[in-house]
Amino acid sequence: MDLKLKIDDRLHTVSVPPPEADGTRRIVVDGRVLAVVPCGARPGAFAAMIDDRPVVLHTARAPEGTWVGYAGRVRLVRDAEREAGRSARRAGPGGAVTPSFPSVVVALLVAVGDVVRKGQPLVVISAMKMESQLVAPHAGTVRTIRTTVGASVKPGDELVGIEPTAGGTGDE
After folding, report:
1. Where are the alpha helices (DSSP H) in the chain?
2. For residue 161, which of 74, 135, 144, 152 is within the disulfide window of CB 3.0 to 4.6 Å?
3. pLDDT confidence of 155, banded at 50, 70, 90?
């Protein structure tokens, strides 16, 4: 199986062949061959030997992809071919901005009435000791803010509503 995956914002080509007789899979990531031997799994965790090194990967599925934690870092892994459709849905109706995973609001960077540009940071959230910024899906005016600093939020919660710029596509 050949995949195009986005890890954070970098595109990677991944080939996952069927397992060999001993269970080893020779996974190719951007031309680099990794020998992966599964050692065990439980909900949210996967243990393996990768190139003779033991690793434990912690995973959490989310609407936009799978969060993978390893060696103190957390990365979002997404199917690049589905990314365009997910980006359109993430904004929600009327330009609503929602978190992609359960988190806590750390900072609000805009106020109702502010004019924002596409990609401008709006809210800072924290999950698993990592901060992320939620950005404007398009240019427009902030019409609603439905959260506060310290609030626990989850996917689907509308945190900020943005009205697209009048007369344009909202992408300016």
Report:
1. 83-90
2. 144
3. confident
